[in-house]
Amino acid sequence: xxEKGAFSLSVVFLLSVSNPAVCQVTIPILSSTAEFGFLGxxxxxxxxxxxxxxxxxxxxxxxxxxxxKKELETQVAQLQHDAQRQNAFFSDIRHDLRSxxxxxxxELVLLKSKxxxxxxxxxxxxxxxxxxxxxxxxxxxxxxxQNELPLFPRLVNLADLMREVIEEFDGLISQKSLxxxxxxxxxxxxxxxxxxxxxxxxxxxxxxxxxLANGVILISLRHEPVRTELIITNIGxxxxxxxxxxxxGKQSSSPGLLLSAELMKRSQGxxxxxxxxxxxxxxxxxxx
Length: 288
Fold this sequence. Notes:
This protein is of the alpha+beta class.
């Protein structure tokens, strides 16, 4: 209150958080009732000014967000383009390599029929089998990357598939003078035959590759009402499971096993390996 009996009202508001400057408006208020109308108008204008400034801030922030969104959309489009190029590249690899490897395999079969089991042919056969297996792994890995892995489940007997895989690696088994003991049961599962065959090939090939000469590989197949298990175990000659084969801490000794673990997940199963960094690993394939 001043000396004349009137009041004055000061309106103070913050213009922005980043700008700490304040705006102060001093409005005289007289004792007369008519003056209160001007007071209300002045307060309303001050509030409208503050609201307009806040709206300006929101619009500026919205522009920043729109700019960031466009930048993200551009990056996503570039990533999608790169992924499409990568998919096309792997597709070309599948088509370009499949035919030559198939021809090489056919030539090997023809040579074996004419020349018999020569040591040179045995080494050649092992190289062809390794190349064929790795090519199949590349193909399935690329299909997973493209989310194009086809699944065609049907009822198959796992024991029959396992025997076929053992026969496929007969040359490798003979080279190391290994003994394969297959303790089998009839185990019929609704599963993709090509996919599970690749998993069995990777698992047995790994067991063969780390085995010592004259060793034993035990394959056990158990089919229960609630669970099916196929276990491949290396039994070395005079070798303990503590003997290191690979440096500890390595994520996996076999890309084929990593791929097979992913394929097992997609077939509603699980792959587990024990003593992976030794010459006596145990690989378990299980399905609920």
